[in-house]
C-alpha cells in the first residue's frame, strides 16, 4: 500500500472515530443563550444546578463549567469537589474531584471536566453541586446566564439547606451525557 493511501486511510478512520465520539457524548445545557450575564465565586458555599436526562441516557462522561480561576498565577495543587445529589438533595449519589489547574486566570470560558469512568445518574431529576472551597486568595468565578428562568439553580452544599441565588438566571454548568448504547 502506498504511503499516501495509508495516510488517507488513517485520516478517514480518525474522522469516523471522532464522529462516533461526538455522537456518543453530548452536553446537556441549562445555560439558555449561552451568554454570561455575570459571574460569582461562593466562599463557604457552592453552585448547584438541576438536570433531568432524556430517556435512553443515564451515564455522564463529564461536566462543563463556564468560568475562570482567580488567585495566584499558578493554580493551587489541589482539587475541587463535584457532588451528584438526589432530587430532594438529601443524598449524595456520587462524588468526583477535579484539579483546579483545569481553570486558567483571565476571561471566563468553557472548561471540560472529563471523568475517568462514566458515572450513572438516576432517571428523573438530579442535582450537581460544585465546591471550589473558595476564599479571598483562590477560587473560580462561575458564570450565570440571565436569559433563563433561574428555576434550576441554587446556592449551597450537601447537608445545608439550599438558597435561591441573588441573580435571575442559571449557573452555566452543563453535564456531558454518554448515550446508553453508543
SS field, number of helical segments = 1
The best one-word shape is: globular
CATH fold name: Jelly Rolls
Low-pLDDT runs of 5+ residues are 3-24
The tally of domains stands at 1
Give an account of the 3D structure:
By secondary structure, the chain is mainly beta. The protein is built from one helix and twelve strands, in the order H-E-E-E-E-E-E-E-E-E-E-E-E. It has one helix at 3-24; strands at residues 25-28, 36-40, 47-52, 57-71, 79-85, 92-99, 109-120, 125-131, 138-145, 153-155, 170-171, 173-179. Strands 1, 2, 4, 7, 9, 11 and 12 form a seven-stranded antiparallel beta sheet that branches. A five-stranded antiparallel beta sheet has the order 6-5-8-3-10, with no helix packed on it. The longest helix is centred in the N-terminal third of the chain and has 22 residues, at 3-24. The radius of gyration is 18 Å and the shape is globular. The protein starts with a helix and ends with a strand. 31% of the residues are buried.
Amino acid at each position: 500500500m502506498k504511503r499516501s493511501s495509508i495516510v488517507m486511510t488513517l485520516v478517514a478512520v480518525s474522522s469516523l472515530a471522532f464522529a462516533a465520539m461526538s455522537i456518543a457524548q453530548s452536553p446537556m445545557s441549562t445555560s439558555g443563550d449561552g451568554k454570561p450575564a455575570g459571574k460569582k465565586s461562593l466562599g463557604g458555599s457552592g453552585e448547584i444546578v438541576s438536570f433531568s436526562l432524556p430517556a435512553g441516557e443515564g451515564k455522564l462522561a463529564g461536566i462543563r463549567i463556564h468560568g475562570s480561576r482567580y488567585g495566584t498565577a499558578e493554580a493551587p495543587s489541589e482539587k475541587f469537589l463535584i457532588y451528584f445529589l438526589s432530587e430532594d438533595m438529601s443524598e449524595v449519589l456520587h462524588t468526583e474531584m477535579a484539579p483546579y489547574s483545569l481553570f486558567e486566570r483571565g476571561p471566563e470560558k468553557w472548561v471540560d471536566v472529563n471523568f475517568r469512568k462514566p458515572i450513572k445518574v438516576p432517571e428523573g431529576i438530579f442535582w450537581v453541586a460544585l465546591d471550589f472551597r473558595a476564599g479571598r486568595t483562590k477560587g473560580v468565578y462561575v458564570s450565570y446566564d440571565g436569559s433563563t428562568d433561574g428555576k434550576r439553580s441554587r446556592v449551597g452544599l450537601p447537608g445545608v439547606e439550599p438558597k435561591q441565588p441573588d441573580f435571575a438566571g442559571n449557573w452555566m454548568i452543563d453535564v456531558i451525557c454518554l448515550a446508553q448504547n453508543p
